[in-house]
Every structure is written in C-alpha cells, then in structure tokens.
Amino acid sequence: MNLREFLSIPYLLEAEAVETEPGNWRVRLAYPELPGCTAEGLVIEDALKQLERRRIEMIVNLVEIGREPPVPRKPLAAADPLWTARDLGLSCRVAALLGGPSKQGA
C-alpha cells in the first residue's frame, strides 16, 4: 500500500463527553485502532480537527520510518487525503510525500 491508501483508511471513531470538574465538560475523541491517536476539546469540531491532524501525522510518520500503520479495513476509493491535509494546514508535507503539488490555502 502507498501513503495515499493509508491516509484513505476509515478508522472507527470513539467520542465521549467527560466532566473534568463539576459543571465543566469536554469532548474526548479517539481512533482506537491507531494507538495514542486522541484529542480533547471544548468544541467537538475543534477536537475533530485536532484528531484528524494527529491521524495524518501519525500515519505519515509511520510510513516515513518504514512501518505500516494499522489497516483494519480497505481504503475508501472516494477519499481525498490531500484535500484533508490542506484543510488542516499539512498540505506541503503530505503533498511532497504523495508526489503532487501543494497549494497552501487552496
């Protein structure tokens, strides 16, 4: 498999609301199939962006060192990992590894 395919794998998403102190709630998200890939925040959208950024960075790091990320299911054919990377500000690094042009802000 190549990096584009690894970045197109759909992982299970776990989400929970946790009370950190009385009346103070946060959302905690995780991809349990990617050990250590978690995020937490006050707003679910912010936590999801954090989690996606960690997922991409984790997969790219594993591929760069020659290790294969977990592959619990087939990659999604319609996924566009470069679009996701651009949205998260990771397009230069990911585009270079995918062999395509990077367009910051596009």
Write up this protein.
The chain has 106 residues and is of the alpha+beta class. The protein has a single domain (3-98), classed as Double Stranded RNA Binding Domain. Helix content is 39%, strand content 18%. The protein has four helices and three strands, in the order αβββααα. The protein has helices spanning 3-7, 44-64, 81-87, 91-98; strands spanning 14-21, 24-30, 38-41. Strands 1-2-3 form a three-stranded antiparallel sheet. Helix 3 (81-87) runs antiparallel to helix 4 (91-98). The longest helix has 21 residues, at 44-64. The relative contact order is 0.20. Residues 102-106 have low confidence and may be disordered.
Question: Concise description?
Answer:
The chain is α+β, with helices and mostly antiparallel strands and 106 residues long. It has helices at 3-7, 44-64, 81-87, 91-98, and strands spanning 14-21, 24-30, 38-41.
